[in-house]
From TrEMBL:
Organism encoding this protein: Ceratitis capitata (Mediterranean fruit fly)
UniProt-listed GO biological process terms: proteolysis
Organism superkingdom: Eukaryota
A Pfam family: Peptidase_C69
Name of this protein: (Mediterranean fruit fly) hypothetical protein
Family statement: Belongs to the peptidase C69 family. Secernin subfamily.
GO molecular function, one term: dipeptidase activity
The organism's taxonomic lineage, starting at the top: Eukaryota, Metazoa, Ecdysozoa, Arthropoda, Hexapoda
Length: 312
């Protein structure tokens, strides 16, 4: 099982001013029976269980923030998506490792960043100092003003600031290619010294590491039209349109604004019985689910959205 997910980002002029919406469908056909969890940590709990390595970097560089994480399976310290109380959201789009390794750990650590730009710098520092030689992964990092794609391989990294009004980032490989706005120091020279780039033409970071995403990523469903009308419920529709029933797992959406940001997560129960054959209420409801229940859940979802809109 690896950490992977199709990510969708929408920003102005497709959304209302000073609002960015990030959506993600987790994808793993080999783990559809695994439980997925959503965990909230306050500042006193955020680094519990991992006081070494990158956690020390966080402690030494400012305030520890509250964070909420989506976990691809039970027992994972990190996660594959998360957000903090400073309107910063981050998600793994692709990794060649299990989520318990570098990418998942970075999700939990980087979620303490004060802005998307700060998160990119923290990722770079942590990859440079603690990156595993065989690890490759890509993130999408957002706050209410900026969207960044960050890719890494070993102790090297590169980041691209997204200027498109909307973008789909697939789960097929590294997302940063020839547009590089931040990177490891002397990235080109290092890649040439390692025999990964011949120095001819534009540097393609993903291709040089043999992990390029060559898929032409088209939007799923109705595309944003540039009039500021794309909203949370629009992203619901986008994720549902893009989901593959054979491989889809949990999903999450972050609506990032200058005011109160809102984060939506789904979590899937383990459809298998517990070892002692105890029939919990969750297992009972899951076993007895009916197609009509989907419409009931959509009605409940709509009511929650309306309630939140009234609150904000």
């Amino acid at each position: 099982m690896v950490a992977a997910g199709d990510c969708f980002v929408v920003q102005s002029p497709n959304t209302v001013e000073n609002t960015i919406i990030l959506g993600r469908n987790a994808i793993d056909g080999d783990a559809v029976t695994e439980a997925q969890e959503v965990h909230y940590y306050n500042a006193t709990e955020a680094l519990e269980g991992r006081p070494d390595g990158g956690a020390d970097v966080v402690k030494a560089n400012g305030e520890i923030l509250r964070v909420i994480l989506q976990k691809p399976r039970t027992g994972v310290w990190g996660g594959d998506a998360g957000a903090n109380d400073r309107n910063v959201s981050i998600a793994v789009s692709w990794s060649n490792q299990e989520p318990a390794n570098d990418s998942g750990t970075l999700i939990r650590l980087i979620s303490f960043a004060k802005s998307a730009d700060d998160a990119v710098e923290r990722i770079g520092n942590l990859v440079t100092d603690h990156g595993s030689d065989d690890a490759k992964f890509s993130f999408v990092v957002c706050d209410h003003t900026e969207v960044w794609l960050v890719s890494s391989g070993g102790k090297l990294w590169a980041a691209q600031k997204v200027t498109d009004g909307f973008l789909r980032i697939t789960c097929k490989g590294l997302s940063v290619k020839t547009t590089i706005d931040k990177s490891s120091e002397a990235l080109g020279d290092t890649l040439k010294a390692q025999g990964l780039w011949d120095g001819e033409g534009d540097l393609n970071f993903a291709s040089s590491l043999g992990a390029a995403d060559d898929v032409d990523a088209e939007w799923s469903g109705e595309a944003p039209n540039g009039d500021g009308s794309y909203t949370l419920t629009s992203m619901f529709d986008t994720l549902r349109s893009a989901a593959d029933t054979e491989t889809a797992r949990a999903a999450n959406i972050s609506v990032l604004t200058t005011g109160i940001s809102c984060h939506w997560f789904t979590a899937t129960p383990m459809p298998m019985m517990p070892p002692d054959n105890t029939v919990t209420l969750l297992h009972k409801l899951h076993a007895q689910r009916k197609p009509a229940a989907v419409e009931d859940l959509k009605s409940l979802e709509a009511a929650c959205v309306e309630e939140l809109n009234g609150f904000s």
